[in-house]
Specification:
It is a single chain. This protein has one domain. It has 13 helices and no strands. It starts with a helix and ends with a helix.
């Protein structure tokens, strides 16, 4: 267990030491600021008063971040920790440590999911702070917190899929390209083929809508849980199998 934790901390340190992930966090904060103050201006003009009531910025910004920005960061982190390390041969130093390969794999997976969670937390916290600055409160803060936590489920599945794709190639640029194409393809598939939309995990990127206020029967929710679990287990099993036998 200590080896797994050490590897996990090391992989997280790799990601956070890269300036581009710090830049992403700064950009997210700026997007939240611009979005909140833009809504304030528009609402104030329409109502004739300098106010922004009954608008929850953490919720209104979720679509952009959950379906576009955070998935992109997940793909980038996955490519850095997997295909990128095979490309520049730094993975050899990782394999030389007295750590089982499955611990290396799990540590990298958890690091990718952690970077996604950190970015989601930054969006939630910064948008909430800006809401407090302009209106003195955050509308439906409890709902927003649970929504962000629940939406980590499809993001984790997306991370597992991207990591699996990374095992197919040793070039980080090509792996990034493949991940983006597959993600866009799955989204398009769900949009234009309605009979398949319920079977594609990307159709549930806003996972919280199934749980918070939807009132779906338990049987329907249980089937969705099994669907996401099936995707997650499949991506993990295939990804680890390919990683285990991948040559440096």
């Amino acid at each position: 267990m200590s080896g797994l934790l050490a590897n996990y901390r090391n992989e997280c340190a790799k990601l956070m030491s890269s300036k581009k992930y710090i830049v992403f966090i700064i950009i997210e904060i700026l997007i939240c600021a611009v979005a909140v103050f833009s809504k304030l201006i528009v609402t104030s003009i329409s109502k004739g008063t300098w106010t922004m009531n009954n608008i929850s910025s953490p919720i209104s910004l979720m679509t952009l971040f959950v379906q576009a920005i955070v998935p992109f960061i997940i793909m980038l982190a996955s490519c850095d920790l997997f295909a990128g390390e095979f490309q520049d041969k730094t993975i050899r130093a990782v394999f030389m440590r007295p750590t089982a390969r499955y611990k290396v794999f799990v540590g990298k997976v958890l690091a990718v999911i952690t970077i996604a969670a950190v970015n989601m937390a930054v969006v939630l916290i910064s948008s909430s702070i800006f809401d407090i600055i302009v209106s003195g409160s955050v509308v439906n803060l409890g709902y927003a917190v649970w929504a962000y936590i629940l939406d980590m489920v499809p993001l984790a599945v997306l991370a597992l899929m991207t990591i699996m794709i990374n095992q197919l190639v040793k070039n980080s640029t090509f792996a990034m390209f493949l991940a983006i194409i597959v993600y866009i393809g799955l989204n398009v598939l769900g949009i234009y083929f309605s009979n398949l939309s319920g079977l594609v995990f990307t159709g549930y990127m806003q996972w919280h809508k199934l749980w918070l206020g939807a009132g779906l029967p338990i049987s329907a929710l249980f089937s969705k849980i099994l669907l996401m679990l099936g995707y997650g287990l499949t991506f993990t099993a295939v990804g680890y199998y390919l990683f285990r036998f991948k040559e440096c």
